Amino acid sequence: AMEKSFVSMFLLLIVISCALAKDAGKKDTKDTTAKPKLPQTLSRGWGDQLIWTQTYEEALFRAKHSQKPLMIIHHLEDCPHSQALKKVFAEHKDIQKLAEKFILLNLVYETTDKNLAPDGQYVPRVLFIDPSLTVRADITGRYSNRLYAYEPSDISLLYSNMQKALKLLKTEL
């Protein structure tokens, strides 16, 4: 079963790469010898070498079927707090490594699922969902008025919350 999902994942990556290659062709006409860049659209800079899902629906499906927890980052491109968190997240080696154990999704828009905004629609906010598709509202940051917000200085707390999301998984399955 492992090999099968690996193959389908690989095929998915090829399809994604092909789709992006069409757009990329337009931009850099200058230097054709440059190495092809990794597709960065889905990561939006949160970890270009990680595999990011495109939609909330796809992320839920993959969490359920891979038995991996899902980490959702709500952010906005023009929000300085989102930008600051993104920078430390992307540069944090341990977080980037640990993130490989998650299904990953970053969103610049809200979904219709109210469970993703337990205490409001603010950015940046990070929520975890386990493979039974339960939002782990109990995994929170340090601010009582915005439970799922993280500042750049909270990056180690976010890291330990990621570890917690993985640990809870093992004890509850």
Largest beta sheet, briefly? Answer: 3 strands, mixed
Number of helices: 5
Given as residue ranges, the uncertain stretches (5+ residues, pLDDT < 50) are 22-31
DSSP E strands, number: 3
* Strand arrangement across the biggest beta sheet: 2-1-3
The level 1 CATH classification of the domain at 62-166 is: Alpha Beta
Query: Might you state the CATH topology name of the domain at 62-166?
Result: Glutaredoxin
**Mean pLDDT level:** 84
What descriptors fit this protein?
173 residues; globular; Thioredoxin-like_sf; Glutaredoxin; AGR2 protein; mainly alpha; 3 strands; signal; 9% strand; 3-stranded mixed β-sheet
Give a brief outline of the structure.
This protein has 173 residues and is mainly α. It has helices at residues 2-27, 56-66, 80-91, 93-98, 155-172; strands at 70-74, 103-107, 125-129.
